[in-house]
Amino acid sequence: MKNKKVSACIFPETVPDDDILFPLAHVFYPLVYCQAVEEDKIPGELESPLRNQLEESALACKYIPSPLGENRERFLSLIHDLSTKKYDYAFQLKNLALSGINSGASLKGESKNSIIDNLLQGRQITDQAGEEREMLLWQARLVLKLGEIFDAEQRALHREMERIAQKEQGLFSELRRDQSEPFSLTKKLQAGDTRTDGLSKLRLKAWSRLLCLGAGVPNDCFCFVTTNQDAVDLLVEKYEQDGKNHARQIPAILLPARYIEETWQEKLQDFQERAGDLLADLADILRDVDTFSGAADTFSSRDGTWAQLLDEVYPRSVHGRCRLHLYRLGAAESCELFMETFGREDEQVRGLKKSAKGLQVGWLELLES
Questions:
Q1: pLDDT above 70 (res 30)
Q2: Which residues contact 80 (CB under 8 A, 6 or more apart)?
Q3: Residue 98 and residue 67 in contact, taking contact as beta carbons nearer than 8 Å
Q4: Residue 101 and residue 104: Cα distance in Å, rounded?
Q5: CA 185, 155, 143, 335 torsion-angle sign
Q6: Sheet of 60-63: strands edge to edge?
Q7: What pLDDT, on the 0 to 100 scale, is given for residue 220?
Q8: CA dist., res. 344 & res. 77, Å (int)
Q9: pTM, whole model, 2 decimals?
Q10: How would you classify the pairing of strands 60-63 and 248-256?
């Protein structure tokens, strides 16, 4: 696997959860995720033994496109205030826009008392282009950190609902004669998708700006994966917009879905050893789908060699299945496409970091029944 590794960048999550990390670890090495701040401590609710172990094994890694350097402590102090005194910043964050991040508003029109203006004090940036770039990077970091705070709150709420549901089930069990259809308000509430939030579009914009106005795409990373199908659809639509380019869809790749903490390392190693030739073929396909297009069906079939190996190592009844849908955008340049789709407002930023043309974008379709 290491001889023919293919890396993938997860977006727009800065702290990806196990649902996306576990399946993708079977295809990509390493998994890369951008973070807004170097040496940052994530909210405790978002801690993951799997993520930590993947990082320790070099199977996953953080990427900081735009380190804050001497301004790190100042920014983290602001984030601490935001998480503990949200009301104080409510008015400015409500216009979040964040001083224009969600609109075409001119940065010149920003209030002198705004969060971003305060952060930029003392930066001594005199040219307009440099000031604009710095402003957008500050905005991007702030939105992404707010997204982490939101995710942590949602995770805590979900766990509390699970606790209440268990208690509720015990209280009602003696009152129900027929338990085939248990009544449960909390089950209905839990069924809501905690992944969907009002920050979704802002996150995509912020992530694109952080990456592309910062250091650009990591070396040898040409695959970008998300759980947001709409985001991939928008990227493909933008790529095909002028009618000159056409996305090439790769047959969906079948993957194990459920992560079991006690056994995942042994199973992953076992799978990689037994699937060595198949994984090498898959790496070739991801690097040059046109040359190896005929072999791509192997990884989508429910009864092929790949599926049989999955069943042997990861029984469907225990681990479930998910599917990775990928599109080859052969003539696209990564940052240009992401900024045109999500990050640019009225041609406001130029001079993006360039990368080689040709990338793949994909979305992970979570647990199959």
A1: yes
A2: none
A3: no
A4: 8
A5: negative
A6: 60-63, 31-34, 7-10, 221-226, 359-365, 321-329, 248-256
A7: 83
A8: 28
A9: 0.83
A10: unpaired
